[in-house]
Design a protein that fits this description.
The chain is mainly alpha-helical. The chain contains 18 helices and no strands. The protein has one domain. The longest helix has about 60 residues.
Length: about 425
């Protein structure tokens, strides 16, 4: 009979690392699906819908993204961190889950009211009101899917299986039913329905498999988690001012065709950032747990993360810059040639985002610099609006590309300065076992 292993610090360390690499592997499996499906669906939609109809779809979905930011309320970081730090306390994580979920439902109701008011008073939106309503349905799916909970308990396999399966189903339905520009509403509806399906399944798994104890949260708990998520909500809302807002501004100022160019270019470039997405999602709860016992061990682990996550993006960035034209034509056809200069301007973004994710999310948030993190992103969001609007008026979608590149560079430099001023140095060699 095999003797049970005695739990030691070394054994716990091995178990933490095994769980970390298992989570990274699971998310890379999902990331593979996230690459294959969009790289098949995006060119297909651009070709069959045409740049005008595709631009409307991109504009409506970018508008709905504001409501995703509202309902996420920073919980993808604050709630994930709280659950990771209380993983062994079933009563506590149940309290966190119920409080966060109720807050998200209330924010969804607020978002729906705002949307309906805008549809009534804005003529452009009223004309295509069904497109915006169906785009909002995806927000409901996002609220239902407790990704933040699965990240906190480091069970990323659930995210991979559920999200990957529903994306495949949505893709198949798009290929089967969407064939011409008049199908733009159907395209939005199918994608939103996939999000709702993922949300329903994710919530069912959370309640049935993880055995969260449902309870009505106290006002004190609701206040605590609302306050805890506030700075991170402001941060993520500010991020949207120089990410999602660019598509929205281009559509608003320069029209649907220019919005289509920018959206197509940005999605290709952002796909490169997906190379480090699984690592980013997995190491945040891992480092949060590690920092509770040893800040030096956490910093020693962050160093190699910085090298790997930035290094993984360099070659794809160079390829995208020098081969933007053949890549754009291959993916979207000759009609997408207008996206080429935009692709070249935003090609460095994946490298900058990789560096700023490590400096901001994995370091500043883990070491309690939430306010400074929030201020940096607020400043960046405002700067992007002030710079982006006139550049879009002057250069169209290309102006948005220039604006977001300047903004992302500013974010990275400001994070370096803040960490240095707070005496936090990231070693680039792993010196201690974790």
């Amino acid at each position: 009979m095999r003797r049970p292993e005695i739990e030691t610090p070394q054994l716990r360390s091995r178990e933490r690392r095994r769980r970390l690499f298992d989570n990274i592997g699971s998310l890379y499996l999902l990331q593979g699906v996230n690459y294959v499906i969009p790289m098949a669906v995006l060119p297909y939609l651009v070709r069959v819908l045409g740049m005008e109809a595709y631009g409307l779809v991109a504009f409506a979905q970018s508008f709905a993204q504001y409501f995703n930011v509202l309902t996420d309320y920073g919980f993808n970081f604050s709630a994930t961190r709280s659950i990771a730090q209380n993983r062994d306390d079933v009563e506590k994580i149940s309290e966190i889950f119920c409080s966060v979920f109720l807050i998200k439902l209330c924010l969804t109701a607020v978002g729906l009211i705002v949307l309906l008011c805008l549809l009534l008073v804005v003529p452009r939106m009223r004309h295509d009101w069904t497109t915006y309503v169906f785009a909002f349905v995806a927000v409901i799916g996002n609220v239902l899917f407790p990704v933040w909970f699965f990240q906190g308990i480091e069970k990323m396999r659930y995210i991979s299986l559920i999200s990957g399966t529903t994306k495949v189903i949505s893709a198949v339905l798009l290929f089967v039913f969407v064939h011409r520009p008049a199908d733009e509403l159907l395209a939005v509806a199918i994608q939103s329905a996939g999000m709702v399906l993922a949300g329903v399944i994710g919530l069912a798994v959370c309640l049935g498999t993880i055995h969260v104890d449902l309870q009505w949260p106290s006002w004190g708990s609701l206040k605590t988690y609302s306050v805890d998520g506030w700075h991170l909500f402001v941060s993520t809302a500010s991020v949207s001012l120089y990410t999602n807002t660019n598509v929205f501004l281009v559509g608003l100022i320069a029209g649907n065709v220019q919005a289509g160019y920018f959206s197509a270019a940005e999605k290709l470039i952002r796909a490169i950032s997906g190379l480090i997405g699984p690592i980013n999602q997995s190491v945040f709860p891992f480092i949060s747990t590690l920092a509770r016992t040893s800040s030096q061990a956490a910093l020693a682990f962050i160093g190699p993360c910085l090298k790997w996550m930035s290094g993984l993006t360099l070659v794809p960035v160079i390829i995208m810059f020098f081969f933007a034209r053949p890549i754009a034509v291959l993916c979207f056809g000759q009609s997408a040639a207008g996206a080429v200069p935009i692709m070249r301007w935003i090609a460095p973004l994946p490298f900058l985002i990789a560096v700023s994710n490590v400096l901001g999310i994995q370091t500043m948030l883990v070491f309690g610099l939430d306010k400074q993190f929030s201020r940096i992103l607020i400043s960046a969001g405002i700067a992007n609006l002030l710079l982006g609007a006139p550049l879009i008026l002057w250069l169209g979608a290309r102006g948005a590309g220039i604006s977001v590149l300047v903004t992302e560079t500013m974010v990275t430099l400001m994070m370096i300065i803040v960490l240095r001023n707070n005496g936090i140095t990231i070693p680039l060699r792993l010196k201690t076992a974790v």
